[in-house]
Amino acid sequence: MARKLEVGVLGATGMVGQQFALQLQDHPWFEITWLGASQRSEGKRYDEAAPWRLARPMPDALRSLIVEAAEPGRAPQIVFSGLDSSVAGQIEGAFAAAGHIVISNARNYRMDPVVPLLIPEINPEHLALLDAQAKAHGWPGRILTNPNCSTVVLSMALAPLRRFGLRRVMVTTLQAISGAGYPGVASLDILANVVPFIDGEEEKIETETKKILGCLRGTAIDPHEVVLSAQTTRVPVANGHTAMISVAFDERPSPEDVLDALRSFSGRPQQHGLPSAPAQPIVYLPERNRPQPALDVERGGGMTVSVGRLRPCPLFDYKFVALGHNTVRGAAGAAVLNAELLKAEGRLG
Amino acid sequence: MARKLEVGVLGATGMVGQQFALQLQDHPWFEITWLGASQRSEGKRYDEAAPWRLARPMPDALRSLIVEAAEPGRAPQIVFSGLDSSVAGQIEGAFAAAGHIVISNARNYRMDPVVPLLIPEINPEHLALLDAQAKAHGWPGRILTNPNCSTVVLSMALAPLRRFGLRRVMVTTLQAISGAGYPGVASLDILANVVPFIDGEEEKIETETKKILGCLRGTAIDPHEVVLSAQTTRVPVANGHTAMISVAFDERPSPEDVLDALRSFSGRPQQHGLPSAPAQPIVYLPERNRPQPALDVERGGGMTVSVGRLRPCPLFDYKFVALGHNTVRGAAGAAVLNAELLKAEGRLG
Amino acid sequence: MARKLEVGVLGATGMVGQQFALQLQDHPWFEITWLGASQRSEGKRYDEAAPWRLARPMPDALRSLIVEAAEPGRAPQIVFSGLDSSVAGQIEGAFAAAGHIVISNARNYRMDPVVPLLIPEINPEHLALLDAQAKAHGWPGRILTNPNCSTVVLSMALAPLRRFGLRRVMVTTLQAISGAGYPGVASLDILANVVPFIDGEEEKIETETKKILGCLRGTAIDPHEVVLSAQTTRVPVANGHTAMISVAFDERPSPEDVLDALRSFSGRPQQHGLPSAPAQPIVYLPERNRPQPALDVERGGGMTVSVGRLRPCPLFDYKFVALGHNTVRGAAGAAVLNAELLKAEGRLG
Amino acid sequence: MARKLEVGVLGATGMVGQQFALQLQDHPWFEITWLGASQRSEGKRYDEAAPWRLARPMPDALRSLIVEAAEPGRAPQIVFSGLDSSVAGQIEGAFAAAGHIVISNARNYRMDPVVPLLIPEINPEHLALLDAQAKAHGWPGRILTNPNCSTVVLSMALAPLRRFGLRRVMVTTLQAISGAGYPGVASLDILANVVPFIDGEEEKIETETKKILGCLRGTAIDPHEVVLSAQTTRVPVANGHTAMISVAFDERPSPEDVLDALRSFSGRPQQHGLPSAPAQPIVYLPERNRPQPALDVERGGGMTVSVGRLRPCPLFDYKFVALGHNTVRGAAGAAVLNAELLKAEGRLG
C-alpha cells in the first residue's frame, strides 16, 4: 500500500483537536505527524499538553509526539484546524500564505466568498472556489471550511428537499454541551436546565445554510433564496444536536416524495466510497418518537443524520425532526470528509 | 374570619392531586376536607395511600385523612379534579350530575362547547358558558377546566399580543418531566437525552389555544383565527416548560409596543387580588440568555410566566422565549386560580 | 468452520434479553435461534414484541423471529436467561428438569449450594458444582449463574487481592439506572438526585461475594471468610457502577504489590482466548480522578473493570475505586463469558 | 426596633458571596452595607459586577451598592468572608489586624489552633479560643470559621452520637456541583457521570471533624480521638451533599438510643432562638429510601441535616445516611449562624 499522507493538526490540544486525533486514528489515507498549539503547550508531549476529555482514549501513536508552535515552518502541507475563532483567522491565513492546505473547522473563513463551505454530499462543486482563492488572497495555499455544527444537521436534512423548491425554514435546535468545547458550559448552568441562547448560533444557521445550498456561478456562490429563522437552545445532552424543522416549498410535494428524497439522498462521498462516508447520509426513522440523541447519534459512525416525525405543518408544508452528531458530522468528521473529497478529486497534489 | 369553604380533591393520590394538596395548604378561602381516589386507595390514610413525590412535605392536616371512593356521595360541593383522563370523563360527569362544581385539570371536557377553558387573566368572560351548561348537559352542577400545561405557557405569552392581530404562531416546546406525572417518563428514556415527541401534546396546543383566545358570542366561543403549529419535546428538566415562539401579526408592532404589552399585562385576578394571583402575570427578562427553568420557574410562586429574547423573526414578525411552571401555573395553581375567580365573582354559592 | 451452536434466550423482550441479543450478535460460537418470553409477547415478531431501548439497533437476524412461550418444548439445549426473578425460579427449574443448560442472569439460583455463581476469571473451578446438581435436584439439565451487577464489579476488584488475606471490605456503590431495567427508575426520582437505597442490593453484595471468592471443597463451596459491609446508591448515570472500596488484609501488602496484583490479574478466559474475554480483566488508571463512567465504562468492550485511586486508608489498609459496566460485565456479557467457558472446557456436549 | 448591625461581605461577587447576599436578606439583626471584591469588580454596581447564578433573584437593596476593594479601610466592623482560599489567608488576616471580626467560610484559618472551627449546635464553647487569638496573632480583631461543606454534614450527624464513644467512622460522600463554585465543574465532566475525586476534600473531612468534635482544654482544642476515613465523589446534583456513613463506638448503643440521640439533638442556637437556627437541627426520616437531595435538602430552610436508613453494619456498629444543604448549612448559612451566636453571646460589641 502507498504511504499515507502526513497531516498536521492546528489547535491540537483543544476539544476539536482531540476529536481530530480520534477521527484520524488508523485512517487509511492520512497520518498525523505534527501537532500545533498555543505557547502554553509548545514543547510538551501531547499526553501532557492535552487535557483529554473523550470517551475513547488518546491514540498511543500520538502520546509522545511533541506539540509545536502553531506556525507554518515545520508543519506538513495538509493541516486540519481546530483552532478557536479568536486566533483562527490570523493563523489559518498565515498557513495558507505559507502554501499549506488548511482544512478548517473554525468559523473565520466560512463566509469568505472564495472559501468553500463544504458538505461533500451537498455542494462538492463549490470546491471550484479554491481555484479563485490564490488570486483573491494572493496566497499559494488553500483554506477549506466545514459549517457550524448545528448548520450541518439542518443542511443535511434540507439538501434532499431542494428539488421541491425550498422557500421558508423555521428551526429550533436543542444542542449538546460538547458543542461548546471544554470546559465550555458550566454544570451549574445546564444540569436539569435549558439555556435558550447560544451566542452567534442563530445567525450562523441563517447565513451559512444559504451559502451551503447555494449555486456556483462562475467563481462565486449565489446564496440559496430560502429564508431561515432559527432559535437555538442548549440542553443537558452530551452529544447530538436535535433540530425541530418546519419547511415551506414552492410546491408541496407528497409525503412519499419527501420520504423518498430523504432516503435516497446520496452524493460524491458515497460514489467515491470515501473512508468516512456513511453508507446512508440520511436515515429516516419511522418510529413516532425518534430520532433521539441517546439512541441514534452514533449511526453511521456519527456521520449519518437521522430524520423522523415527518408530518404536515398547519403553517408551512411539513414539519420533521433531524439529529446529527455535532462533534463528528458537525466538526472533526466533517473536516476529515472534506479532506477525503479533496484527495479523491485529485486536489491534494 | 369567615369559615373556609370545604373542598374535595378527586384523584388525590396522583401527582396532580398531590400538587392540589400543596397548593391549597393554608389557603385563605378553601380547606381540603375530602380526598377521593381509586379503589386501591379507598379506606387508607392519605399518607399511606399517596406515594408522595414532591419536594415540600405532605401537609400535616391531610396525613390522617381517610381516602374515599371517587363518588359524589359524601364529597363537598366543590371538588378539584386531578383525575387521569382515562377516568375523568365519566367521574367528573357523575359529580356534575350530582350537583358538584368540578374544577378540573383533566383534558376530557376542555373542548366541550359549554365548558370554559379558563385562564383567569385571559378569558374570564368565558365563565358565562357555565350558565349554558345545565341546559346542554342536563346536570345541576358545573365543570370548569384549565388548559394543558404547555398551552397555558403559550397562551399567557400570546394573550397580551392579541391587540396586534395574531395571525400565525410557530412554537417548539422543551417540556419538563413532571408534566408526565409519576412514574411517567422512565429515566433511561430521558437522562442526558431529548425525546422529540409527547403524545397528543401538539394537537392540544394547536386547538386549546384557539379556544382560550377565542371570543364569547352569546353562549358559545368563537375560536381565535390564529393558526398555530407546534412541535413538542421532552427534556431532562424537573419543572418548567420552555416555549420557543415565532409570531406573525396583522400589522407589525414596534418592539417597544410588544414589550409594553407584555409588561403591562394584567387581568381580573390582579384586580380582585386573588390569593394565588401573581402581582405580575408576565415578567420580561432583559438578559440575553433568559428565561431558564433553573433560575426563573419559581417566579411569582410559580404563577408568573417569564418571557425573554424578543427579537425580529426573518420569517414572521417576532420571535421570543416563554417559560412557565407546568405543575403550578400549568396545572394545580391554574385550577386553584380558576376556583378563586369563581368565588370572587360570586359563582360559588 | 464448524456450525455454530444454537442457543435460546429466555425473557428475550426484557432489558437483559435485549442485551443478550446484542452480546450474541455475530458471536463466533453461538447463534440465537429461539426467543422465549411471557404470554403477552408469544406469537409476535421480535421487533414487534420487544420495546427496544438500546443504543445499538436490534440485530436484523432477529427482527422477524417469532417469540415463543417460555417453555422447554422447542427451545435449543442451551438457553440464556434474562428472566425477571419473579418467574425465573420456576421457569429455569423447568428448563433444567427438561434437560436444558440454563445460563442465567437471574438471582434465584445464585445462592443454591450446587449452582455455580461464576466469574470465569475468579472461580472457574466452581464449575465442578454442576456435577452435583443432577443428584441434588434430580434434573438432567444444569443451571449456571452469574452474580448481581454490582457484586461483579466488587468481586473482580477483590479477587486479585485474595493472596494478601482479605479480611474486611467496606464498600459504597454509585449505581447506574440501567441496572434497574426498563422502565425501571422513574426520571422524577433520579434526575439531578441521588437515591441512597436499592432494594436487596446490599444483602446480595454481602453474601454473593463470599460465595464467589469461596473455596471448592469436594462438591461444596466454603464461603470466603471476608466480612463485607455495603451501602448502595442510585445515581443519574446511564451505564457503569462505581464502587468506593476500603479493604483490610491479614497482612498489609505494599502499594506496589497491590498494583502488581491488580495489573497482572488474568484467568482462564484469557488463557482460553474466549471470544468475550478482555485482554486485561482489570486496568489500573493512574490519573487521580479516575475511573469515571463517562470515560471508562466501555473499556475492553465493557468487560474490563477499571480501578484507580489506590491509597492508604486510615482505618483499614487501602482504599480505592472500581468501575464496571453493569449490563455487560455485570449481566449479559457475564453470562455469555460463562457459556464460553463451559464450551471451552468441554461442558457443552 | 433597634437598628441593625452593619456588616460587610468579602468576596461578594463570587458564589459564596452571592449566597451571603441571600442569606442576609431581611435578616433581623444584620444588614449588608458594604461589599468587597477583587480589583476587577471595584467601583462597579453589584448587579453589574456579580454574575448572579442563584435561583432567588439578587436582593434589590444590593443592586446599586458599589463594590469596593477588599481592604479594611471603609468596611464595617463585622465582615463575612466568601473569599477564595487563594487570597483569603492574606486578606482575612489584614482585616483582623485592622480590628474587624471576620466570619469566614474559607479554609485558610480553620485549622489554626486559636481560631474556632464552629458549628454552633456542636461546639459553642470553642468560642473561648477567640480570647487567645489577640495574643497569639497580635491583632485586635478576630477570625471565626465554619467547616468545609461536607464536613458540616458529617459532623452534624456524628455530634449526637459522641455520648456513645465515637471510635471509627468510614464515610463516602456524593457531593453536589454547587460545592465547587461557579463556573466550577464543567458540564462535560459531570453530566450523567460520577467523578470519584474532589481535591483536598478527604483530608478536610478527616482533620476538620476531629477539631470540631474536640474538647476545649484551657485555650486549646484537644482533637477528638475518633479516626475517620473518607472517600469523596462529585455527582450530578445541584444542591445537597449525601454522606454514606459507618460508625463504630466504644460500646454499641441500641438502635433506639441512636435514634433518640439524633432526634433530640439540639443546642445553643435553639436555646437562643437564633434567627437562622432550625427548630430541629437533625431530622430522622423513617422511609427506607431517604434522605434524597431532591426531596429533603430544603428542610429547615436548608439548615436541617436529614438522616435515614439507620441499620446495623456487619463491620462497625451502625451504618446510616446523612444529607445537608452544602451552600446553606455547609457555607453561607453556617457563617451567618456563627455570627448570630457571637451576637447572642455578647461577643459582637
Name of the CATH first level of the largest domain in chain A:
Alpha Beta
Oligomer: homotetramer
Overall geometry of chain A:
globular
CATH topology heading of the largest domain in chain A: Dihydrodipicolinate Reductase, domain 2
Spatial arrangement of strands, main beta sheet of chain A = 3-2-1-4-5-6
Overall strand count of chain A = 14
Percent strand of chain A equals 15-25%
**What's the N-to-C terminus distance of chain A?**
18 Å
- Global Rg of chain A: 19 Å
What does this structure look like?
The structure is a homotetramer of 349-residue chains. Chain A has two domains: 5-148 and 332-344, Rossmann fold (3-Layer(aba) Sandwich), CATH 3.40.50.720; 149-325, Dihydrodipicolinate Reductase, domain 2 (2-Layer Sandwich). Chain A is 29% helix and 23% strand. Chain A has helices at residues 15-23, 46-49, 60-63, 85-97, 129-137, 149-158, 187-190, 201-212, 255-263, 268-272, 293-296, 328-344, and strands at residues 5-10, 30-37, 68-69, 78-81, 101-104, 142-145, 166-175, 215-217, 220-222, 227-234, 241-249, 282-285, 305-312, 318-324. The longest helix of chain A is centred in the C-terminal third of the chain and has 17 residues, at 328-344. In chain A, 58% of the residues are buried. At the C-D interface, strand 7, strand 10, strand 11 and helix 11 of C face strand 7, strand 10, strand 11 and helix 11 of D.
